[in-house]
């Protein structure tokens, strides 16, 4: 199966928790998740990226998360979030055919993070 970009969410400042719409990742065997944070606001900001698969009953099941401080994030010093998800990958999880990605912004004094999200099926 050919490599396909499943999500290319452009970089934007996020000051609230959120999620993507459902992503159909079909019969791919591996998901390559990448995010790059290039700016921040607030005090002690953190960014958590969470990957969920959707089960047969329509419930979202947590399969992986990455949480990092983004206090030092800037264009010249980006903070990277990287994961390879799939059976036999560093994140050894089956991911079904559909899921979504959530993000959680942490910190105080109106925390926020400017980041993009990319998901590639292999």
Write the layout of secondary structure elements.
Layout lengths: L3 E11 L3 E2 L3 E2 L6 E24 L5 E10 L9 E7 L12 E24 L1
Antiparallel strand pairs: 1-7, 2-7, 3-7, 4-5, 4-6, 4-7
What structural class do helix, strand and pairing data support? mainly beta
Mean pLDDT: 94
Q: What gross morphology would you assign?
A: globular
The helical percent reads under 10%
Low-confidence stretches: none
Largest sheet: 7 strands, antiparallel
Radius of gyration over all CA atoms, rounded: 14 Å
Query: Given the structure, what is the number of helices?
Result: 0
List how many beta strands DSSP finds: 7
Strand content bin: over 45%
What is the straight-line distance between the termini?
A: 7 Å
Order of helices and strands: EEEEEEE
Question: In a nutshell, what does this entry contain?
Answer:
With 122 residues, this protein is mainly β.
Report on the architecture of this protein.
- Helix content is 0%, strand content 66%.
- It has 122 residues and is an all-beta fold.
- Strands 1, 2, 3, 4, 5, 6 and 7 form a seven-stranded antiparallel β-sheet that branches.
- Strand 4 and strand 5 (60-69) form a beta hairpin.
- The termini are close together.
- The mean pLDDT is 94.
Q: What features would you highlight for this structure?
A:
7 strands; 7-stranded antiparallel sheet; mainly beta; 122 residues
